[in-house]
């Protein structure tokens, strides 16, 4: 949709806006992707769920707090973006999307997840950053194909021991929580490639040199008295890193991007070989 149309939509009341958008959806998009982000939507009309061949649905940056039951008819949906909305609970229909592999739920008002989330057997990427979690949502530990978990900027104080059963997990993002110690359970998860505990309350770090899969540890903005010891080739972003790591600290975003690309490449190779 062009900028001119977006400019017009910005002045349309939300109820008329959603009728305008859905009314102009005449046929399945060629790329099987529907992007209704940033359109002031307060509800998703059921008519938007008629394209049962959809693979990607973007609903980010609206005013949604619920979704119609008809959403579960999108049986081939693989990506669903619900970030930057007003959800206080996860709509039941989301848990009935059998092919869903990527779910963005960041920047909402969630404080728990339903047990039905465990039915998403294909889920590999889950973003839950900037919500209202005070406890780690333990149903996440049942998502055995999960590879990336983002729980940054909540109020989590500890991780459950059963998170180590997520043997496919490669990156975990926990920045901006209330951790007072490096989660002991992560020391048992040698397969992790990326660990982000930036902006917590950790005072002392254990050695991570035994973690054979580790590629990047982000630990800056903690009141720590030491830096974590790591193996050869592991990048660190934080205080007391050595000179080569200090360069990375000045450009932490680049370091994260590079490592994330490496992890994605490895995961893609593994998927192709299966």
UniProtKB/TrEMBL annotation:
InterPro entries: Leu-rich_rpt, Leu-rich_rpt_typical-subtyp, LRR_dom_sf, LRR_domain-containing, LRR_R13L4/SHOC2-like. Keywords: Leucine-rich repeat, Repeat. One of its GO terms (cellular component) is cytoplasm. It holds the Pfam family LRR_14. Residues 57-151 form the Disease resistance R13L4/SHOC-2-like LRR domain. Coiled coil: none annotated. This is Leucine rich repeat containing 10. It comes from Nothobranchius kuhntae (Beira killifish).
């Amino acid at each position: 949709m062009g900028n001119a149309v977006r400019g017009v939509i910005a002045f349309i009341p939300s109820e008329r806006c959603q009728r305008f958008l859905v009314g102009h959806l005449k046929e399945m998009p060629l790329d099987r992707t529907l992007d209704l982000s940033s359109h002031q939507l307060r509800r998703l009309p059921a008519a938007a769920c008629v394209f049962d061949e959809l693979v990607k649905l973007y609903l980010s940056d609206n005013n949604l707090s619920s979704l119609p039951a008809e959403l579960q008819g999108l049986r081939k949906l693989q990506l669903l973006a619900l970030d930057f909305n007003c959800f206080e609970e996860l709509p039941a229909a989301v848990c009935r999307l059998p092919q869903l592999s990527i779910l963005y739920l960041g920047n909402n008002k969630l404080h728990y997840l339903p047990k039905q989330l465990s039915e998403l057997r294909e889920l590999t990427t889950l973003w839950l950053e900037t919500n209202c979690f005070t406890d780690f949502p333990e149903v996440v530990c049942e998502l055995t194909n999960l590879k990336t978990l983002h729980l940054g900027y909540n109020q989590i104080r500890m991780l459950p021991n059963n998170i180590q059963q997520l043997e496919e997990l490669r990156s975990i993002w926990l920045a901006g929580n209330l951790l007072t110690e490096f989660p002991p359970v992560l020391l048992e998860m040698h397969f992790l490639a990326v660990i982000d505990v930036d902006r917590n309350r950790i005072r002392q770090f254990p050695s991570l040199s035994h973690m054979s899969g580790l590629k990047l540890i982000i630990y800056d903005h903690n009141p720590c008295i030491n830096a974590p010891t790591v193996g050869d080739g592991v990048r660190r972003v934080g205080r007391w890193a050595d000179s080569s790591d200090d360069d990375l600290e000045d450009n932490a975003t680049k370091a994260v991007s590079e490592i994330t690309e490496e992890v994605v490449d490895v995961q893609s190779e593994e998927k192709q070989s299966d």
